[in-house]
Amino acid sequence: MTTRAFDKKTFGFLFLILSAALILRCIFLARQSLWLDEFTSWECCARDFWTALHCDITKPPLYFALLHGWMNVFGTGEAAMRALSIPPSVASVWLVYLLSVRLFSRPIGYLATRYQTVSTSQISFAQEARNYAWLVFFLLLAGLFLWDALEADSRRRRLRCWAAYTASITLALYTHFFAAFFIAGHGLYVLLRCRRQLLPAAVSVATALILVAPFFIIATRALEAVHEIRRYPLLKFPQTYFTFLFGNSLIPEDDQAVRHILQTLRANAWIAVLALASLAILGRFCRLAWRKWREPMLYVAFHATVPVVLAFLVSLKENFFDRRYMVPASPYVYILVAAAVWEVVLSSRSHAEPRWKTWAGLAATGGYSLLLMVSLYQYYFSERFGKEQWREAVAYIEASSSPDGKDLLVLDPGYLKECYYYYQKRDLPIWPVTPQIQGEARNPRSWCSSEPRRRLFA
Questions:
Q1: Residue 130: which residues within 8 A CB-CB, separation 6 or more?
Q2: Whole-model pTM?
Q3: Which residue, among 50, 107, 13, 33, has the nearest Cα to 388 in the 3D structure?
Q4: What 3 state SS string does 66-99 have?
Q5: Residue 278: Cβ-neighbour burial (10 angstroms; 0-12, 13-18, 19+)
Q6: d(Cα 124, Cα 133) in Å, to the nearest integer?
Q7: CA-CA distance, 132 to 88, in Å (whole number)?
Q8: How many angstroms separate the most distant Cα atoms in the chain?
Q9: Which of these, 10, 138, 17, 33, lies nearest to 81 by C-alpha position?
Q10: What average pLDDT does the chain have?
C-alpha cells in the first residue's frame, strides 16, 4: 500500500491537505451552542463510566465510552466535547486518498481528498459531539481492508486483511447500528463479484455479529418501544445525495424551507440549475472513467448507493431514514466525482474528445467547485444554516425572570431539561412535562382529581 501511495511530493501534498482539513474543522468550533443530540451525549457521559455505557440503550456504547474518558481529560465545554470528532474526520481524508490510490491513481486521490476536505457534510459532523465522524472513519477502514482482502496476492496477506476488516466492522457496529447496511452492501458486492471470497467474508461478518450480539439483543428490545416519526420521508432520499455532493449548507433544508419548497427552489434557482447541469455533464465523463476502471468504479458505486438504497427501502415500513446515518457513503461519492473530473483533465490534455465537450466538462468542474465553496462560506457565515441556539435561549430566559427566582420554567417536552441544565446560571425551578402528564392534560376528567395539581406544585 505504501510503496505505491507515497513519495516526497505526496507527503507534501497530504501534509497541506490534512492541515487544511484540520483548520476547517477547528475554526468556530464553539461559536454555536450545543444542539439537542449533543446534549444527550453530554448527559450520558458527564457521570460515571457505567452510566456512559448504558444510559442510551438504543445507541451503541463505543462513542459514549470514548467521550466519557475524553471529557475527564479535556472538560465539558462545547469545543472540548466536539473536539473528539475532529481526529477521525481528518484521518478519513487520509483514508480517502489511500482508497483512491488503491482503486485508481494518485491524481484521482488528490481530487477526492480535496472534496472530502471542503465538504460541509463532513465538516459539520466533525464539529458535533456525536458519533458520525467515527462511523465514517471505521467504515472507510472497512472498505479499504475489504478491497485489499479481495485483491491480496498471498494467503498470509489475505488473512491479515480479513482480520483487519473484521475489527473495522465490529468497531463500526459498536459506533452505530446503521453500519449494518454498509456491511450488507459489502456482502452483496462479494456475492455478485467475488464468490470465491464468500466464505471468508461470511466468517468475518459472523465474527463481528457475535462480538456485537450481547449489546444488540438488549438494544433490539429497547428499540421495539421506540417509534420515531420523521416528516417528509420521500424527500429524504434525493436530499441525502444532494447534501453528499454539495454539502448541507447550500440550499436551506429546515422545516420552513420544506413547507414552502417551491418558494425555496425559486429563491435558489441558479444553484439548482448549476448543480443539475454540472452533474449531467460530469456524468458523461463518469462513463468514460467506467470504461477505463470498470471494477474499481463498480466497487465505489456499490459503497455510494447500495447501503443508502437498502436503508431507504427498509424505512418505508419503519420511517427511520436520515441522511446523518448515511454519511459514510459520501466519501465514495467524492471518489466518483474525482474520477469524472480527472477524465475531464485528461481529455483537455489529449484532445481525445471534441473541443466543445472538453470545455463543457471544464465548465461543469468549475461550477461544481464553485457550489462547494458557496456551501463552505454559508456554513460558517450564514445564520440560516446554524444549530439550535440554546445558549442564547437560556440566557434570555434567565435575564427575563424575576430577581427573586420565584418563576417556574415549564419544559415541554421534558427532555429539554438537559438544554437548560448545561447553560443555566441561576438554577430556576423547572417542571418537565412528561408523556404521562401530557396524557393527563388531554383527559379533562383527570383534572377533577387534585393529584395532578399536587404533583404540579410539589
A1: 37, 38, 41, 63, 85
A2: 0.91
A3: 33
A4: HHHHHHHHHCCCHHHHHHHHHHHHHHHHHHHHHH
A5: buried
A6: 9
A7: 10
A8: 85
A9: 33
A10: 88
Q: Please, are residues 376 and 385 in contact by the beta-carbon 8 Å criterion?
A: no
Residue 30 φ/ψ, nearest 5 degrees: -115, 15
Chain mean position to CA 412 = 28
Q: Quickly tell me which residue has 444554516 as its cell.
A: 385
pLDDT tens sequence across 146-180 = 999 999 989 999 999 999 999 999 999 999 988 99
User: Residue 302 — φ and ψ, nearest 5°?
Assistant: -60, -50
Cβ neighbours of residue 263 under 8 Å, at least 6 residues apart? none
CB atoms within 10 A of CB 329: 26
| Listed residue (391, 392, 432, 395) closest to 411, CA to CA | 432
Q: Which of 444, 30, 103, 35 is nearest to 304 (CA)?
A: 103
Residue 147: count of CB within 10 angstroms of its CB: 21
377: which 3 cell numbers?
462560506
CA distances from 334 to 77, 99, 251, 301, 338 (A): 33, 12, 19, 11, 6
List CB contacts of 374: < 8 A, sequence separation 6 or more: 250, 271
| Spatial contact of 120 and 75, defined as CB atoms under 8 Å apart | no
CA distance 130 to 175: 10
Q: What is the pLDDT of residue 456?
A: 46
The grid coordinates of residue 166 equal 473484521
Half-sphere exposure (CA, 13 Å, Cβ side) for 224?
A: 5
